[in-house]
Amino acid sequence: MAAVAATAAAKGNGGGGGRAGAGDASGTRKKKGPGPLATAYLVIYNVVMTAGWLVIAVGLVRAYLAKGSYHSLYYSIEKPLKFFQTGALLEILHCAIGIVPSSVVLTSFQVMSRVFLIWAVTHSVKESEDSVLLFVIAWTITEIIRYSFYTFSLLNHLPYLIKWARYTLFIVLYPMGVSGELLTIYAALPFVRQAGLYSISLPNKYNFSFDYYAFLILIMISYIPIFPQLYFHMIHQRRKILSHTEEHKKFE
């Protein structure tokens, strides 16, 4: 999710790592990019997503200034948050058709887990308001930087400040986002279990069952192997890419 995730994370959370956009192809190795039409589409997509997350950021700030408190801030940005995070499902398609060089499996996990989180877990936002704000703030800052990074990379004009922010602020933002996500899921478990939220029980005409409560627990467990891998991948990328940039500056 946050491993915004690296990521988002993965990609992306992850979250970081790479998800939609130019991916992390702006590193030291040159990779063949998408064609002109795909590039134009990805630029538009990333500009729209950057603007969307900026709207969310402004909404949070305005609501806080108006209320003078962080309580109930989530409701001031709930609709745009759900809209733009759900829109990120397109990033799975981007990977599947090959216009973005990222793992379909990893990207799917990052995007789908976040979508599940905002559409289901936040039903219990009153019980987990602090943790919800924790991951929302982390997501917002991370996504503004990430989508800006991808936009400028696609245009072959990446400012050093954005590159530095992309490969530095995640050090704090990814753990912050993951902590908020896990605490929010944990706080929502009693509600999910009691309400049977999004669960499908037998018997039914499709002979199919789904336990959303168990699914959320599996999501939490999945952070154990996935998040450290994504996080340390981004640490490695940071050393490689920023050191390469510094070396390049010395020769200019």
Name the structural class. Answer: mainly alpha
Shape: globular
SSE ordering: HHHHHHHH
Q: Compute the number of strand runs.
A: 0
Mean pLDDT: 84
Spatial separation of the terminal alpha carbons: 39 Å
- Which strand-content bin applies to the residues? under 5%
Which tags fit this structure?
mainly alpha, 67% helix, 0% strand
Task: Characterise this structure.
The structure is a single chain. The protein is mainly alpha-helical and 252 residues long. It has helices at residues 36-67, 73-87, 90-96, 104-119, 129-154, 160-166, 170-195, 212-251. The radius of gyration is 19 Å and the shape is globular. It starts with 35 loop residues before the first helix and ends with a helix. Mean pLDDT is 84; it is low at 3-29.
Write a compact overview of the structure shown:
The chain contains 8 helices and no strands.
